[in-house]
Structure prediction request, 330 residues.
Amino acid sequence: MYIKPATERPSIDTGLSNNNLQIPVIDLGRLAEGVVECRATMKAISDACREWGFFQVVNHGVSLELMARMREIWRAFFHLPMEKKQLYANSPKTYEGYGSRLGVDKAAILDWGDYFYLHLLPNSIKNIDKWPSLPTSCRETIEEYGNELVKLCGLLMKVMSISLGLDVGYLQEAFGGEEVGACMRVNYYPKCPQPELTLGLSSHSDPGGITVLLADDQVKGLQVRKGDNWVTVQPAPNAFIVNMGDQIQVLSNAMYKSVEHRVITNAKEERISIAFFYNPKCDLLLGPARQLVTPDRPPLYDSMTFNEYRLYIRKKGPRGKTQVESLKAA
Prediction:
């Protein structure tokens, strides 16, 4: 049920660690310091998007107390008795709520983890009644945190637009302007007796736009593919981990890349992470920006709505980068 094929099993002891290779750490505080510092920060983000598809941000403007509070409330939720958590159980049709299965393939090998998925934007589909009411103040904290991360993603979208040579608001408008989507997936990975046989989350690239991850600050688990290697990410203190989703790869005509990543498990410690997804409006057609299409670099992808793409992934479950590669124009 949880044992992965030999080709997909992690090599727990040989993943590259912070001693030899790590994703970049970028100080966003410098964006407010002046033109030279701003250019340096934008170049660092651009380089990271091209070379890694992943980076960490510090001095991002989000309260450290709020970050700590989010970790605390979600750890408390996953420690509730099962009957309390089952009050928020999802289904293959709704996905929103508490669950443990990704995709609707009944024969799929499960990942070693539970999650809680909820919608934040657009407001028309946000339903706070589906959010946990325990622990106390959980809903208010989620709302506050979501608002702060929407602001952070808006800033990153501007920086990436300029770095691609586009108008400052291009990516935001391509995502639907004020009608963007935002959702959150909180992951709980319990202790695993045989971490070498399974994964907390199978290898995949994120289908949406930008992912901002609040990682567990005590237990490592996220691995990013770099060439033929899996790099175990060492979370920087007080940082968010940012990665590009498939829609940014499509819009940038593959100048910026989404990257495969996965989560390994731990025999001795549980782990919590909180992923915030900033996504396009679901019914907008997305394709490569025409400014990034040239005779030497034709459009690499056919256009598709995010809804169509998301439905495809929901049916198949996590499958590396095969989903976005399947969009490539003939």
Observations:
- Helices lie at 35-51, 64-78, 82-85, 138-163, 170-174, 246-251, 306-316, 322-325.
